[in-house]
Amino acid sequence: MRSGFLVIDKDQDFTSHDVVALARKSLKEKRIGHAGTLDPMATGVLVLGVGHATRLLSFITDGSKTYLAKIRLGSATNTDDAQGEIISVAQPEKIATITDLQITDELAKRTGDILQRPSSVSAIKVDGVRSYKRVRDGEAVELEARPVHISSQKILKISRADDFVDVEIEVTCSAGTYIRAIARDLGDVLNVGGHLTQLRRTHVGTFTIDNSITSTELKNGKEPKVMQLVDAVRSLFRVREINDDEEIAIFHGRAIDENSENVNSGRHAAINSVGEVIAILEPRDGRLHPSIVFPRDAAK
């Protein structure tokens, strides 16, 4: 079984599920999943785990992400993005009063640790039913705010027309942050409405657009290059080089000693003397305990 990661540059109008299906067909491998959904409207980095690498997808999903986004101020939609129905439009006179400084200040206020209310058209479940399905069935849904971390919001460009203002930003944020909600909240606080018109993800943790393949190329039969498991874990975790005795202990589910310089230093990837990934190790009580152990055919 081939194990590792694919970095897809997802094109617009492909769902994340579409991309997974294309990869399964191309690689003739059923065990493929993705790290963090991208809406059909969005483009950019979608990381796929192949084979045993699917066991590491949660570590990637939980990492930081960077986006390029375009926010349109002056109108709001029922989905907080351009694919929804317009539900309010501000008067041009009101839009003309918005200054660049106001936009900058309001985005700055929403940087750091904040409480963000997710878009109602999201996959979050409410009493077992996904929020977006409730909205499509005609229900009015308002989700509870939840903590997220926005590391930075950099304004790249502000463009003006008579009936709208477009704000292009670069956002680096934690998992669980909704860029649509940033657009909605900026429009709300400026009292003109706002929604997302473009979104491109450029980073997921350590994965970038570099050496990616587009979803269209994948659909057209281009063979994707799978990043080997060992190369990926070296970028994701600290590395603990292990000897033969430690390798045997790990395969039997036993903890090993931490190196003195690595005490309480976090999660590690155990790599043996011939460069094979053996396990993911978690520190506890001064020792490294195996939390994921890879079968030998997945080690390289």
UniProtKB/TrEMBL annotation:
This protein's record includes keyword Isomerase:
yes
The UniProt record lists the Pseudouridine synthase II N-terminal domain at 24-179
Q: Which residues form the tRNA pseudouridylate synthase B C-terminal domain?
A: 180-220
An example molecular function term from Gene Ontology annotations? tRNA pseudouridine(55) synthase activity
Q: What is this protein called?
A: tRNA pseudouridine(55) synthase
Q: Which Gene3D superfamilies match?
A: Pseudouridine synthase (3.30.2350.10), PUA domain (2.30.130.10)
Q: What is the lineage of its organism?
A: unclassified sequences, metagenomes, ecological metagenomes
InterPro entries (alphabetical):
PsdUridine_synth_cat_dom_sf, PsdUridine_synth_N, PUA_sf, tRNA_psdUridine_synth_TruB, TruB_C
Query: What organism is this sequence from?
Result: freshwater metagenome
PANTHER family reported for this sequence? PSEUDOURIDYLATE SYNTHASE TRUB1, TRNA-PSEUDOURIDINE SYNTHASE
Task: Specify whether tRNA processing is a keyword of the entry.
Answer: yes
GO terms classed as biological process? mRNA pseudouridine synthesis; tRNA modification
UniProt xrefs under HAMAP family: TruB_bact (MF_01080)
Enzyme Commission number? 5.4.99.25
| Key words of the record | Isomerase, tRNA processing
